[in-house]
Amino acid sequence: MEKKKKKGLVLFDLDSTLIEEETIDELARLAGVEHEVKNITKEAMNGKIDFEESLKRRVALLKGLPTGEVKGIISRLKLTKGAKETIKELKNRGYVVGVISGGFTIATDKVKRDLDLDYAYSNELVIKEGKLTGEVKGRVMGPTSKGDILEEIAKKEKIDLKNSFVVGDGANDISMFKKAGFKIAFCAKEILKRNADISIDKRDLREILKYIN
Fold first, then answer.
1. What are the residues whose beta carbons fall under 8 Å from the beta carbon of 87, sequence distance 6 or more?
2. pTM
3. What is the pLDDT of residues 126-182, one digit of tens each?
4. Domains along the sequence of the chain with CATH
5. Count of alpha carbons within 13 Å of 49, Cβ hemisphere only?
6. Is 116 tagged catalytic?
7. Of 28, 139, 120, 23, nearest to 79 (Cα)?
8. Which residues does residue 97 pair with via DSSP β-bridges, in sequence order?
9. Alpha helices in the chain, H assignment, sequence order
């Protein structure tokens, strides 16, 4: 059987994009530090503080959470309306599809399986003796991380960047917006809308299919 030609690349953010929630806010609620973490998240997503610094500060507040309880939270995360149909249709159209998240492998690995994604990049919560240590490690923390990974995947798949589409909602998506051929801000913060080709405010991912042929 002849292999279908790759039409292009579509990369999504995870939190508040492919899924309804901000994973770290859900974990913070479990740890009893929801208010503190939400304030830091808000500043980071609006571009007021550096993402890496904000992530490390937020994860530090989760120290001591048992991994069993963390997995319980992850199992209850909800896919955004239309996510399954959208990913299936994109793959049918010949696109390579992935997620790049400043969040955590424990969430992106699940979503990758659930949606049959080709790629998933995120950061790892450090665990010791069955509990979170309050530390995080990984590739998706720096100011250019998402853009660098977009380029890496495109090169590996031999896809021209002009045939790449990105979908996100916050300031840490800007680096991949700057490099992609077409940028979609999905229910996004103003700072990202200013860097987008199109903004969608209806919370249904099937809306993006109008712009990705």
1. 97, 115, 116, 117
2. 0.95
3. 999 999 999 999 999 999 999 999 999 999 999 999 999 999 999 999 999 999 999
4. 8-210 (3.40.50.1000)
5. 13
6. no
7. 23
8. 10
9. 23-31, 34-45, 51-60, 67-75, 83-92, 105-115, 145-157, 174-179, 190-193
The reply to whether 197 belongs to the active site is no
Which regions in the chain score pLDDT beneath 50? 1-2
CA dist 149 to 59, 156, 201, Å?
23, 10, 26
Three-state DSSP class for 128?
strand
Please name which of 111, 105, 108 lies closest in space to residue 136, comparing C-alpha atoms. 105
Tokens of 64: 């001591």
The sign of the dihedral angle between the CA atoms of 153, 157, 158, 162 is: negative
- CA gap 148, 72 in Å, rounded: 32
Taking CA atoms, 61 is separated from 30, 31, 150, 173, in Å, by 11, 8, 30, 24
